[in-house]
């Protein structure tokens, strides 16, 4: 007797349809999650959140959707709504979610509408989590932008304060230079002329003639030193032409050593505070070379790199740091000068380096960012 076992093992049509419908629902839920994620990634948060909230309402068959984001600091919570809520008697809550971040999603619709099963609820929870993540990222980006704006504003205010400080220092230098010119320099010049006149009147045979001539020579040297100090306090070239031209004038006046000047003319267009500080640093470094290094060659470079930074290099072939150290008074003065150069560069947010050259001598390097000067109102 033959038995037909095929019917027992063949799948039931109804079961196949149910499995197919379940697979379609899973695929639809997955597409819904992916599309929501893509929307949040592709658009601004405000536009994407409204679109995703509308799709959430359609997905759950809701007529009204309400999304409340957690408040930040002392700000009020952000709320988005889609659709209209019917009367309390005809509408009921289809879904509500509140995750640990404080986000709350509420979907309302007709009581007779289809219910939200466990799989749908899980899908809604996933998309609500995506909304929470996107909101947090958007808030963090806004906070970072605000912090960046505050930082830029503080940097601008600091740049303005630095410019005012440098300007005040230079004005004080100019005042001192004028006082010296109108006071001590005039007195010394008058003393020099009187001594020369006295020397001419007493004649060559007078016993005091050699001593008067020495005093006249000392007075003339004092006048020259005072005029040099006045020029160093506030060189007119710095105001009229710029830092490169002022440095070139300073270097042209050096005798007794080979001077190589590589000064980029674009430095004359640097912000005034940058030009003044770089001139002062170069001035101090050159003075140290002349007074202490016993050098035969001096190299000064001034230029701007492609990254928007100003550079100064002062290199000599003299004794170098640590060789035949000068007397203690000069050492203290040299250290004070180095500290002053560092402090000046620090005002610009730059750095200062000094060290020995491998072939002998000393190098001084200064670098600072070229920032646009702003005046505080």
UniProtKB/TrEMBL annotation:
UniProt xrefs under Gene3D superfamilies: 1.20.5.1930, Histidine kinase-like ATPase, C-terminal domain (3.30.565.10)
GO molecular-function term, one example from the UniProt record: phosphorelay sensor kinase activity
InterPro entries in alphabetical order: HATPase_C_sf, HATPase_dom, His_kinase_dom, Sensor_HK_TwoCompSys, Sig_transdc_His_kin_sub3_dim/P
UniProt feature coiled coil, ranges: none
Cellular component annotations (GO), alphabetically ordered: membrane
Residue ranges occupied by any Histidine kinase domain in the UniProt entry: 278-372
CDD domains: HATPase_UhpB-NarQ-NarX-like
Record keywords, A-Z: Kinase, Transferase, Two-component regulatory system
Protein name: Sensor histidine kinase
């Amino acid at each position: 007797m033959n038995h037909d076992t095929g019917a027992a093992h063949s799948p039931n049509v109804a079961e196949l349809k149910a499995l197919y419908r379940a697979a379609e629902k899973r695929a639809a839920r997955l597409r819904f999650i992916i599309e929501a994620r893509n929307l949040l990634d592709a658009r601004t948060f405000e536009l994407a959140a409204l679109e995703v909230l509308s799709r959430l309402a359609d997905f759950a068959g809701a007529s009204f959707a309400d999304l409340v984001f957690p408040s930040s600091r002392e700000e009020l919570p952000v709320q988005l709504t889609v659709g209209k809520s019917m009367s309390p008697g005809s509408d009921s809550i289809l879904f509500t979610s509140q995750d640990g971040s404080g986000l709350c999603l509420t979907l309302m619709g007709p009581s007779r509408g289809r219910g939200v099963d466990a799989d749908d609820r899980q899908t809604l929870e996933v998309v609500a989590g995506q909304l929470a993540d996107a909101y947090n990222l958007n808030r963090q980006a806004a906070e970072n932008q605000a912090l960046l704006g505050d930082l830029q504003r503080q940097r601008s205010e600091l740049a303005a304060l630095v410019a005012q400080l440098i300007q005040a220092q230079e004005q004080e230098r100019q005042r001192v230079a004028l006082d010296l010119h109108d006071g001590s320099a005039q007195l010394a010049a008058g003393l020099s002329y009187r001594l020369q006149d006295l020397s001419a009147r007493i004649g060559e045979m007078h016993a005091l003639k050699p001593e008067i001539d020495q005093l006249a020579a000392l007075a003339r040297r004092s006048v020259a030193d005072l005029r040099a100090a006045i020029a160093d306090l506030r060189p007119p070239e710095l105001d009229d032409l710029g830092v490169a031209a002022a440095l070139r004038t300073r270097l042209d006046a050096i005798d007794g050593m080979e001077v190589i000047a590589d000064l980029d003319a674009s430095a004359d267009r640097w912000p005034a505070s940058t030009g003044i500080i770089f001139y002062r640093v170069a001035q101090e470094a050159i003075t140290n070379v002349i007074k202490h290094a016993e050098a035969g060659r001096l190299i000064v470079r001034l230029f701007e790199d492609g990254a928007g930074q100003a550079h100064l290099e002062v290199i000599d072939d003299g004794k170098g740091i640590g060789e035949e150290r000068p007397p203690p008074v000069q050492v203290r003065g040299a250290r004070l000068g180095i500290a002053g150069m560092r402090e000046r560069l620090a005002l610009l947010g730059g750095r200062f380096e000094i060290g020995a050259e491998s072939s002998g001598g000393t190098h001084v390097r200064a670098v600072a960012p070229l920032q646009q000067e702003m005046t505080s109102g």
